[in-house]
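Quick one - inputs below.
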Amino acid sequence: MARQLAFYVNSHACGGCKACQVACKDKHDLPVGIRWRRVYEVTGGGWQKDGDAWQSNVIAYNLSIACNHCEDPICVSVCPTGAHYKGDNGIVFIDPDKCIGCQYCAWACPYGAPQYDEAAGVMTKCDLCADELAVGGTPACVSACPLRALEFGELETLREKYGNVAAIHPLPPAETTRPAIVFKPHRHAARAEAEGATIGNLEEV
Amino acid sequence: MPAWSLLLFTLIVQACVGALVWSEFLHLSVAGHKRLAPPDTIRSTTMMGITIGIAVAVLISILHLGSPIKAVFVLNNLGTSWLSREIFLLILFGGGVALATVMWRRGWGSETSRIFIGRMSAVLGLVLVYVMARLYMLPTTPGWNTIATPTSFFSASIVLGGCVVLASMLHPKSASLSRENARVVVVWALMICLGVEIVLTPLQAGVLYDHPMLVERSDGFAVLNVLLGLRVLSVAIALGCLIKLLTGSTERHRRWLFTTIVLVLFAEILGRYIFYTYYYRIGV
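Output:
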């Protein structure tokens, strides 16, 4: 089986501090508006009257998402120029010398991973800090997480360690693109799906 | 969104395909009846117009690219990318029409070969419209991934192409073909397509009503309903004008035809505006 690197996201532990998002922007010197990693705040529920008291029924958790370097990446299949490609280690890269900036990949990717750099006229996305990995380092987001909610490694190893959950609300079913990611779902995740919780910080992501 | 360059690109290309398909169909329908057929100059002029239309559409489409200089790589992924396939077919279609235009105008080759290239280009054009629709039918975009997308693209081709052909019939040299059977055929086809567009509207609305933006914004449904209502209204009035074209006095044909073309153009632009504006995909 080909090598496939992946992220592990512990949504239960994530406090939503966005240190991962900032570390990513800092490491890659990303311009304003481009966020290869984003922290989504999933919110729902409310307060329910219980006799004379009010009970909290609030749904609230954070979801730190970058490119999931899918095993069946839709960005690679739709890209007309072949600028999107999958490397030997399973990382999905964009070749800026081939990208024409048509943004078709951004239409297609259900994780919002490919982002358009207007100044450069090309799409950009998370490359799992391939340059750091090459010298034995770890991705900037993983290094920056103060709660150790992010990890990275071989997909199979992460699955053995943490299980097979590859989709939690509001992400699409894993069958769509077979994302190389493992989640520890937040305890509210099942209710969030059942009750249709929404993203509370759309302006930020 | 809306992507104006893509809106114009798709409509112009579909109008060009429709015009060629109509032109070839009408010539085919009078094959063997030289008396009914329009002169070759009309055919070559139509093809010239289509060639220019395709060239303009390509220039407009380039506007939405961040790095158009690298467009030479655009055919690299014919295996899986519908966008690559679209450009490939556009080159074949545009190239075929341009070749046929030159052959008709310069008198190159036999008449049979010119007709063959024209008809092959028309077939390629229909495949191109299908590929254009498939491009948007991504598994991650439920609003686009419906039968309404190819139906509306083919309908736009037939309707816009039909309008181009009807407009060309105003030309004094379009001869006997214009005011007899051909006009009736084109008008009936347009009425059927416009009827299909009205029938499709609830299906389109049903898909769009799931749009997350509408769920979150209280006035979202009202704006969408106004846009859809305007489109249905303009299509319905265009249908009325087409009926007048069939039944009204000949002296007023020009007026009804002009009104039809304006309304159809408005309806198709509005329809495509809705198509692009209410794009959404699953996930985050």
